[in-house]
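Subject: Protein record for review, amino acid sequence with backbone structure tokens
How to read it: Take the token row as a discrete description of the fold.
Enclosed: The protein record, placed directly beneath this head.
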Amino acid sequence: METIVVSRRKFTGNLDTYFKKIEDGAQLILKWGDKQTIIPPAEAIKDDTAYTKEEFEAMLAESMAQAKAGKCKVLTEERWKELSGL
């Protein structure tokens, strides 16, 4: 793993260059004054807040199957008021 030591001024002046290096697996040590911070290499993540159409349809199908099998709870007006604090 490549380690790059860079000043704050140089980093902010060349953001695209340094972010590309981080994406390519480099570790960055950013220094300013008597302080420093380490920016680790970028890691691939899965955005679990978004689903493909296929994933979403599979989740819906599973929920529908559970509802048809009676594995669900009915939200009554009384329960809704209780949960909402009314």
